[in-house]
Amino acid sequence: MKKLRKIAVYGGSFNPIHNAHIAIIQAFVKKFKPDKLLLIPTNIPPHKSAENMATGSERAEMCRLALKDMKKVEVCDIELKREGKSYTVDTLRELSEMYPDSEFYLIMGEDMFVSLLDWRRPEEIFKLAVICTVARGGGDLTQLYEMDEKYKALGAQTVILDMKKSDVSSTMIRQAVFNDKSISKYVCEDVERYIYAHYLYMNKAEINYPRFHKVLKSRMGEKRYIHSCNVALEAVRLAELHGADKEKAKLAGLLHDVTKETPHDEQLALMRRLDVPLDELTLLCPKLWHAISGAAFVRHIIGIEDDDIFNAIRYHTSGRAGMSVLEKCIFIADFTSAERNYNGVAKMRELADKSLDSAILFGVSFSIADLAGKNSAIDPNAIACYNEVVLNKMKESN
Ligand SMILES: [Fe+2]
Ligand SMILES: [Fe+2]
User: 67: CA distance to ligand 1 center in Å?
Assistant: First the structure.
């Protein structure tokens, strides 16, 4: 009976997807004109994945970005959903049920092709799909063709496409990112931006400002990027004036809004993944999230573990009782950065130079009044901050 559809299946870790993968996809699409090509990122069990690797959903998202303009190519997450070790034979069985009356073409790299007899139930795989691979010129292809003969003798249908040699590999890309080398020749622009935005494969032990600027630019618009740079400058100035650590002020100021333009659902997913505890009020008020998700991003994703920097970002919108000098500098710098021009900014700047607490009181009163005016919920940390400063001032005047 004639099969209704041709479906190509290409599995791999895609950590990350790169131009050589895309070339293989294009070559097979051209050759077979499938009705659909499913790209299937394989699950990497946590114990096998070293720290600093991308998660399954990040790998799948990079695949989606890289393939967004290719018609009939889809990213399929059945192996990621299955968790644990995935066997190709199980995936093919599942796909045969999902797409009955289809002819499957299983695409794989040369290294996978030559080791096929070590896979689970190779003879069943041969029945379920045509086995496809690429022969890259330059290396010794004897083994590839020997195995091909063996598979055919076992009843397999195989296809070997000749392709130009490629030096690109995911390992090489991860190393390049780690060592701050450009990867723009090996991945598409969207994937490169995603890698920076999500701080994938980076050397987390390093304080690296050019890289932090790249992270910000890939996560936010020009206006907020300028604001972030200005807050860093203002925070350093205030730190010098009031005796906080200037380096920490620069880092916290620069990164304080790192997740401000991240969609709420992504911020929530990030906080859940990083086990950030969220109370009822916070859950109901997404406006409170960027300080929380930003602090978690800076600590866990960028790898800056300093508690004072964490708290300065965590409480930069609300303030809190018992703020450190650095926390106060960041809170105030967010109000007094060079591009700010609201009514009252001159007063705030004047107070900031004279007394951190007076500026905090001015800023937090402004925020509380603004929120109350809109009937919005007020973070209890803001009220605690307000009360502490007011009580201190009362004690001083008594
Ligand atoms: Fe902010
Ligand atoms: Fe800000």
Answer: 34
Tell me phi and psi for residue 277, to 5 degrees.
-70, 135
Neighbours of ion ligand 2 (CB under 5 A): 257, 334
Structural domains in the chain plus CATH codes: 5-170 (3.40.50.620), 205-397 (1.10.3210.10)
Calculate the alpha carbon distances from 67 to 75, 208, 239, 309, 322 in Å. 8, 31, 47, 38, 50
CA of 131 to the centre of ligand 1 (A): 53
Closest among 158, 320, 325 to 235, alpha carbons compared: 325
What number is the average pLDDT over the span 286-293? 97
Percent of the chain scored above 90 by pLDDT? 88
Of the pLDDT bands very low, low, confident and very high (cuts 50, 70, 90), residue 82 is confident
How much distance in Å is there from the Cα of 317 to the middle of ligand 1?
6
